[in-house]
Amino acid sequence: MPLAPRPPPPALSDAPLDPGLYLVATPIGNLRDITLRALDVLAACDLVLAEDTRVTAKLLSVYNLSKPLERYDEHAAGRTRPKALAALERGARVALVSDAGTPLVSDPGYRLVTEALAAGAAVWPIPGASSALAALSVAGLPTDRFLFAGFAPPKSAARRAFLEGLRSVRATLILFEGASRLGASLADMAAVLGPRPAAVARELTKLHETVVRGDLTALAANPALAAPKGEVVVVIGPPVDEAAAPVDIEAALAEALGRLSPADAAREIAAATGLARRELYGRALALKGR
């Protein structure tokens, strides 16, 4: 049976684009991971602010788009921002993109957004790919509460102090790390946070995408993770309060059951303690039946 022909790609929208600043998420690897709305904005905007104009020019060329590009990174922001703000004041449509993923997530742009808002310009989110959320979704770790902590400091002493500040956070942690520092960083994570369950996601959505799961101690000892190539996201499970006595857990569940259903009470206590939600749900049902 012959295969059905592939449908043509959807046409770009011809709806007018309002003036303002558009924060446009771009693919983190696979160039097909761009939204149709992002293409609409890039096709209709008057100016694109790009972390690296060469990277963005390649993305635009794939979709047969050509736009004025201005470099907007930590080095060029000081001279580019006044131009962008002046363009917004004239009623221009300005798109801000990073090299990969969602703008402002460990990328420049915060000051541009705050100054644009202060000047009365409209600021629009154009959501899409995010390596932090992509890694969280495949890590196999709790997703009901998480903290994105960005990049840890490059030096070990500062990195350990940084991790100490995160040790008591009762949430899954998401960090970016440079590949060349990954081995040393995992060793510090294991030393400060202990053998928590974790995942190292590398080259997400790209040809050599890999996700390695295990506890931090095992991951730190894995020679394949000493200095891999590519972009890296580390996801670390929340702390487990092993010192919590059963009577304390039961008291917490009893209090929560006065406000919530057994399922919601189990979810709340699981987020607060790091204990398994299924086990807490069984205990909540038992308490409810007394």
Describe the secondary structure blueprint for this structure.
Elements: E1 20-24, H1 36-44, E2 47-50, H2 53-62, E3 69-71, H3 77-89, E4 93-97, H4 110-118, E5 123-126, H5 131-138, E6 146-151, H6 156-164, E7 172-177, H7 182-193, E8 197-202, E9 210-215, H8 216-220, E10 232-236, H9 246-257, H10 262-273, H11 277-289
Parallel strand pairs: 1-4, 1-5, 2-3, 2-4, 6-7
Antiparallel strand pairs: 7-10, 8-9, 8-10
Helix pairs in contact: 6-7, 9-10, 9-11, 10-11
The average pLDDT value, as a whole number, equals: 91
Q: Count of DSSP E strands?
A: 10
What topology, given as strand order, has the largest sheet? 3-2-4-1-5
Order of helices and strands: EHEHEHEHEHEHEHEEHEHHH
Helix proportion of residues, in percent?
A: 25-40%
Number of helices: 11
**Nearest-angstrom radius of gyration?**
23 Å
What's the N-to-C terminus distance?
63 Å
Regions with little confidence, pLDDT below 50 for 5+ residues: 243-247
Oligomer state of the chains in this structure: single chain
- Characterize the overall form: globular
Largest sheet geometry: 5 strands, parallel
What structural class do you assign from the helix and strand content? alpha/beta
> What portion of the residues fall into strands of 2 or more residues?
15-25%
